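As noted in the main text, all predictions were made from sequence alone. Below is one such record, for Ribose-5-phosphate isomerase A.
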Amino acid sequence: MAFTQDELKQQVAKAAVEYVKSGIIGVGTGSTANFFIEELAKVKHKIDGAVASSEATAQRLRGHGIEVFDLNSVDNLEIYVDGADEITEHMHMLKGGGGALTREKIVAAVAKKFICICDATKYVPVLGKFPLPVEVLPMAKSHVARELVKLGGQPQLRDFTTDNGNLILDVHGLTITDPVAMEAKINQIVGVVTNGLFAARPANVLLLATAEGVKTYQK
Ligand SMILES: O=C[C@H](O)[C@H](O)[C@H](O)COP(=O)(O)O
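Prediction:
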């Protein structure tokens, strides 16, 4: 039976809710995370609330009557649930298609377990077909763009301002065979806030929605 991409996202969101036990949950951003929020709302009596990785997610959580906590008031999070633009068998991810990469990386850093929820189109052998988002301080955009060209990429300025008041360069043309090294190298460019590679801290669980059902991968 063929499912639409939205049906696959919904299936994987339902599977992720099985990991919600109690306490405060870290919640990601994007269309797949939005399906997760719908499912989370159905079990909100089990949790104290959530930490959001974007203003959009915070608004959506509050709309469902889920309390949103400031990350600074939370010592640790059991789980962080979020989508990805690409993920490999090593659980390395490329994220930030929705521009929320920096807050996502910060909330994920606090969580014990990163649960990545994706439909099968996101599962790739090598990262980089999806343009790599890099959040930059506005005054540094030209400098950072020149440095990204030296790394072999073609940066394009997105018509977008992040929740942090910064800009996004989407870097095309990178074949990212060593995501850990590339993540570190780009983060060392002065003016970069962070980039959309989540490799130093990969996902712990991947829930992948396929035509044959939701597959679970653990690391
Ligand atoms: O900034 C956005 C996030 O990194 C999303 O997790 C990513 O873009 C995937 O979004 P979607 O679930 O809409 O494909």
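The first strand starts at residue 24 and ends at 27. The chain has a mean pLDDT of 97. These features were considered when defining construct boundaries for the mutagenesis experiments described in Section 2.9.
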